[in-house]
Fold this sequence. Notes:
Layout: E1 6-11, E2 14-19, H1 30-45, E3 51-56, E4 61-63, H2 68-72, E5 97-101, E6 104-106, H3 108-115, E7 118-122, E8 126-128, H4 142-150, H5 152-161, E9 165-166, H6 167-173, E10 178-180, H7 185-197, H8 201-215, H9 219-225, H10 230-236, H11 239-249
Parallel strand pairs: 2-3, 3-5, 4-6, 5-7, 6-8, 7-10
Antiparallel strand pairs: 1-2, 8-9
Helix pairs in contact: 3-4, 4-5, 8-9, 8-10
Amino acid sequence: MELKFSKVERKGPVTIITLSRPEVYNALHIDAHFELNKVFDDFAADPEQWVAVVTGAGDKAFCAGNDLKWQAAGGKRGWDKGGFAGLTSRFDCDKPIIAAVNGVAMGGGFEIALACDLIIASENATFALPEPRVGLAALAGGLHRLPRQIGLKRAMGMILTARHVSAKEGHEIGFVNEVVPQGEALAGALRWAEMITKNSPMSIRASKQTIRKGLAVSLEQAIEEQREYPAVKAMVASQDYIEGPKAFSEKRPPKWVGK
């Protein structure tokens, strides 16, 4: 598929996905959503790709959210089953996804970042759910993910005021994992990705799936049912499950195969 609104680069087992509409601060419209849905489908299905990093083209914006000028001009709205950017409704991907936020992350852009497992932000990054200022609401997951990630009162404080939050404050209140110097968001995210790839991808997928499924039920039920989760069963049946203890006993680095 020819990519018009995004770029994909693979570095070993890491896929770098760049939102590429810099002329509109990487804001997204229907065609971009459908393209990105296919990009994330391909990443999820590729056994050689273990971690994804999402960033924005240019040095000003990660993603300014929904392309309001497109909408105001009568452009059709909508997205594929994966949600905004092909990501916000993608609940079946057990591979880690990291947001490298290199600037503005507004509305849907912030919702993309919140849908990722980690957020690495440059010091000039800014986050907000400003939809109420234009008569909208953050219905691509922001109204649900933000309270779950930082607590109800902090989330209400951001959502009801539509105020902008710096990367530093985002780190302090808990939705940013690390703040890095301006221009180094992608490098920082790749550093985290490298640390992840030192671990068994089967274990990583089992861990992510167990966390996600477990948070949806009681603690008792989560512990009782976790060994029946598909990714946990796949881990136990994998070559990596044998290789890890073997490498440890032989005092050598493990050779993960991801199956």
